[in-house]
Amino acid sequence: MELSATTRISTILRENPAAIEAIVSINKHFEKLRNPVLRKVLASRVTIADAARIGKCRVEDFYEKLEPLGFSVASKPTHNKRAIPMEADVLERPAFMANLSQENTIVLDVRDTIAKGDDPFLQIMDAVNKLSPEQVLCIVNTFEPIPLIAIVRPKGFEYYTETLGPSLVKTYFKKQSAGEKVEVNQTVSEENFDELLARYSGKLQPIDVRQMEMPQPMVSILGALETLPEGEALYVHHRKVPQFLLPQLTERGFQVSIKEVGPNEVYLLIYR
């Protein structure tokens, strides 16, 4: 398998599970990969470039550790325009952090929500969109929320992350200016679900995630999309509309049509 800065960690681990220990050996920041739950949450969303920023190391460090396992390196590495900047770009503590005040800081602790298997995405996005220019949102989590930063930062928000312990990470967001509203359903298709279903008849890849616990449904769906043949659609049987998945689909260039047929029963048709 050929590697580049935009290769996702999940793809590497699926190719060769021994890559877990190879990546962990780079430095202690990657020890979370040994935790199956955190591995499922993070690996499918993070590229080598993103991981290098988190671990304060070089992309080349990954290449050096993975090449002995049979991986090769692209001769001309590509760069993901949506990737979060490397550590050098966000090393300095932004000015707004020096002026933090308790009355203007909105604290949202999502650790219990995630531990219960619930999705905090809509709650977070609602808080982000309600921020006034004077306010700062502090998200308390057990890991750096890379996908959230990737969604919010391009909309005119500064951010800063503090790692205060192995399971305590605080990420702060503040509008740089007026700040554009962060849309959460921009990838939802307006086309009729049943008409799309007929159009893709004979070209559907079914997947049922109703019995899976978070974050397995999203991990499984994104994994299936990585190998979805051109011209086919993924037909998902879900318990609910997966709001946190929608911006991930947008990043990958997919559209989704949704049909809610009853309590705890939702059909998704994901296609390009």
From TrEMBL:
Gene3D superfamilies: SP0561-like. It comes from the Bacteria. Pfam families: DUF1858 (PF08984), DUF2249 (PF10006). Residues 107-175, 207-270 form the DUF2249 domain. It comes from Pontibacter virosus. This is Uncharacterized protein DUF1858. Residues 5-62 form the DUF1858 domain. InterPro entries: DUF1858, DUF2249, ScdA-like_N_sf, TusA-like_sf.
